[in-house]
Amino acid sequence: MKDSKLSSVLHVLLHMAQAGAPMTSEQLARMLGTNPVVVRKILAGLRDAGFVVAGKGHGGGWTIGVDLRRVTLRDVYEAVGAPTVFAMGHRNEQPACLVEQAVNAALDDTLAAARALIDQRLAAITLADLSADFDRRLRAHPHREHSHEH
Fold first, then answer.
1. Does residue 97 fall inside a structural domain?
2. Which of 13, 26, 31, 117 is most buried, taking the most CB atoms under 10 A from its CB?
3. Which domain holds residue 61?
4. Alpha-carbon gap, residue 114 to 54, rounded angstroms
5. Cα(28)–Cα(34) distance, rounded to whole angstroms?
6. Taking the CA of residue 140 as centre, how many other CA atoms within 13 Å lie in the half-sphere pointing to its CB?
7. What residue ranges are annotated as transmembrane (predicted)?
8. Tell me, what CATH number does 29's domain have?
9. What SS3 state is found at 54?
10. 52: left (phi over 0), alpha (psi -120 to 50) or beta
């Protein structure tokens, strides 16, 4: 089963950065095709991590609370609880079995190398990089709306 929490959080953060004004949980929920309660729960965790700020009252809503150039995808990944990257694991039913030991050692080494590469890549991309990529895509398709309320 896929865990799209990181993708959803990045999606929300970029919409907030592009908006230039506070956004409500309802607006963000429409963009994600989900319930505002789900969005508020996600945003509460991001607020606790310092990534977003909640404004109350008339004209209130959620805004970005960080410099996009200083936040990497790895930072956001860690803030959402570092979801498991791979569902693949290994057997531990016969720990004394030498075949099982050999298989598990190979899988452990391979998965550790893959996780290290993913971590390195996430650390190399900032929210500002994502925002700039979005801007390039929008300029290439000037008649396409970036707001996609479902």
1. no
2. 13
3. 5-85+127-140
4. 36
5. 9
6. 6
7. none
8. 1.10.10.10
9. strand
10. beta
